[in-house]
Amino acid sequence: MRKLILGLAITLDGYIEGPNGEYDWCFTDQDYGLNEFFGRIDAMFIGRKSYETAQQYAEQNNGETIPGMPKLTEYVFSSTLKTVKENAVLISENAIEQAHRIKKMPGKDIWLYGGAALTQSLMNEELVDELWLSVHPILLGSGKLLFQEQNYRTQLTLLENRTYETGLVSLRYAINNSRL
Predict the structure, then answer these.
(1) Which site in 2, 3, 4, 67 is 20 to 30 Å from 119, CA atoms measured?
(2) For residue 65, is pLDDT > 80?
């Protein structure tokens, strides 16, 4: 079965975006393991807000969302969107059931790209297998937190860690999906 990997940038105090949705604090001066990661995946799960933000960015950058990103099957999870770009798949009903089905399909691993609400839903259903967090050396103080309060603990196993000269620390964890 394919793994679902939450991979994203996060601040040391746990934020994935600033109070106005900004992500200007993210380092873009080097690869930080992205190309290696791209070799592991062939699909992406993305929520509506992240999808719309990515589309706006791509429009301003010659259609490129992330430099070097290969062609991926994009599964856009939204109950409000009616259409998505060509080669993307809109998941508007039975999101959890559809996520289970897609994980069972043949292929490489799947990148859970973004959407705090989508991430929370998939985490609650124990569908996320790995966390790959690029921890940036900044304290934002406010914004959108990656993880919301929950009534259970999630045990993690460290798979890999890398430290970069910029102070960014890349952490990969396996999620032990038995609730504590």
Answers:
(1) 67
(2) no
